[in-house]
Design brief:
single chain, alpha+beta, eight-stranded antiparallel barrel, two-stranded antiparallel sheet, 2 helices, 47% strand, signal, Lipocalin-like domain-containing protein
Length: 192
């Protein structure tokens, strides 16, 4: 009987010590980054929700993109991207016709950058590339065409700001003003 009482007391004390050591508050590897991520989402998350568009037209390239951010972290969008070349014909320089920009060749077919896509988005304060912590807009989206196995987005864009009319982040393949893509709020269609 004494043996049973000792074992019971031991298990009760062990359970109490485990309970005393555990906490319902999670421990973060980088508490500062976690706190700044929360602040970033509180400030800009509700503002980002909605539809945005960006268009840039140059002599050799024209680009349009529309993004719709949902409050649940989902993303839908569409992209239209075309280019042309300046060639010399009979000593005269002329532009070729506009062609859709290609992602590459997939199963012997040219895969174009144009189309609709869907995925997820989130704002984070972190250091994904070893360059120092910054605000990022993490975008992950695949084209809706199931025959295309390329990502429309799969990267962390340096996020600058968003307000009621403007969204600004860096892009790796289309640069607007000083490398920033500057989106305007609202539904729009490409002008080309």
């Amino acid at each position: 009987m004494l043996q049973l009482l000792k074992k019971t007391v031991f298990f009760i004390l062990a359970a109490l010590s485990v309970a005393a050591c555990s906490s319902s508050d999670p421990e973060y590897v980088d508490p500062e980054a976690h706190e700044k991520t929360i602040q970033l989402n509180e400030k800009y998350g509700p503002v980002l929700v909605g539809t945005w568009h960006f268009e840039k037209i140059g002599e050799k390239q024209r680009y349009f993109e529309r993004l719709t951010f949902q409050a649940d972290g989902t993303l839908t969008g569409m992209r239209k991207w075309q280019k042309r070349e300046l060639v010399t014909i009979n000593g005269e320089q002329v532009y070729t016709d506009w062609e859709d920009v290609e992602l590459g060749v997939w199963e012997d077919e040219d895969v174009k950058q144009n189309g609709t896509f869907s995925g997820t988005w989130k704002l984070r304060y972190w250091d994904p590339y070893g360059d120092g912590k910054q605000n990022y807009l993490e975008l992950s989206a695949k084209y809706d065409n199931k025959d295309i196995d390329f990502a429309a987005y799969q990267y962390n864009a340096v996020f600058d700001y968003a307000d009621e009319t403007t969204l600004r982040f860096k892009s790796y393949y289309i640069s607007g003003e000083n490398g920033w893509m500057i989106f305007q709020r609202g539904e729009a269609e490409p002008s080309f």
